[in-house]
Amino acid sequence: MKRSIFCLALLLMVFSCAEKQPVTTGVSQVDEGTATLYGQVAKEHLTTLKEVGFFVSTTENFEASQTREYRSPEVGGDGAFATVVKGLRPQTTYYYKAFVRVNATSLVGEMSSFTTEDFSEPMHAVDLGLSVKWCSCNLDAAYPEDFGGYYSWGAISEYSKTEYVRARRKGDGPELDIASIKLGGTWKTPTDAQWTELRKKCTWTWTSQKGVNGYLVTSNSTGNSIFLPAAGFWKGRTLVDAGTGGVYWSQTAGGYEIGDENDLWYPQAAWRINFDSSGVYRGSSGTEQGRTIRPVCK
After folding, report:
1. What residues have CB less than 8 Å from 121, skipping those under 6 apart?
2. Neighbouring C-beta atoms of residue 188, cutoff 10 Å
3. H or E, element range at 284
4. For the whole model, what pTM was predicted?
5. 48: domain CATH number?
6. Both 35 and 132 in a single domain?
């Protein structure tokens, strides 16, 4: 596994409409899937300071669906603050800007960037002694701790807050499965029954792996394990519970069916598995929300 430390000079100037605000300086340390960003706010603004942190994005224009906000837990007496960014992807350029919220005003600094090295791991099937083998990482992920892509139920393209492109129905699931489309072979999105099997025949341990929270799921028969990161989910324009909870789709429809503009009947809800540090649960939810997928194969 490659490891690298980048020290990138960060010079961030925060602006208001009328005058220049305090300079924020620091360095970025990048180690595989984690980065630590540092900054500093001028002392004269500490008394009115509410929040500080960084916006981190894979796009230069900080598109909402590709941008996350990381708040710093505390600010030192000298105005220094730090933010840990987790779940970075290999060979990816990230753009980041410091933000400072003073009174009712949000101030944003200049943009800087860094690029991660290749620390990806080959995707493979893991034998847990069950009816299907489970993928070592999420769909679109480059390693087990990577959140991967988010999809609405039955969608044939990644989650979008404005457009829901989905496949036709076939039985209890979509006619086209995005896991099959992307991975080929016998790969598919797991059924509700297969999630139940995983939940009942494996030991689930809440843990942190390479700085990412999630569940280590260990087979009671083979001893092999997979890691399910707490990737959260997209609801409208907001990424919810990333780092504290996970919600994964099954391909099994549930709830009432509704018609759409093309006269296609689609479920109003679908079965999924969700978890946080308190436990693992089966439930159903609206098909339009963006959730992660952990593929399975024969």
Report:
1. 136, 137, 142, 143, 144
2. 21
3. strand 279-286
4. 0.76
5. 2.60.40.10
6. no
Residue that wins the pLDDT comparison between 164 and 179: 179
Q: Which residue has the tokens 């194969």?
A: 297
**Domain finish residue from 81, 97, 115:** 115
For residue 65, give the amino acid letter: S
CA–CA gap between residue 199 and residue 271 (Å, rounded)? 14
What are the C-alpha distances in Å from 203 to residues 217, 218, 221, 227? 6, 5, 10, 12
- 199 CB-contact burial (10 Å; exposed 0-12 / middle 13-18 / buried 19+): middle
**How far apart are the C-alpha atoms of 283 and 265, rounded to whole Å?**
21
**Per-residue pLDDT reduced to its tens digit, 50-101:** 888 999 999 999 988 788 889 898 888 888 888 888 888 899 999 998 888 8
Would you call 16 exposed, middle or buried from its count of C-beta atoms within 10 A (0-12, 13-18, 19+)?
Answer: exposed
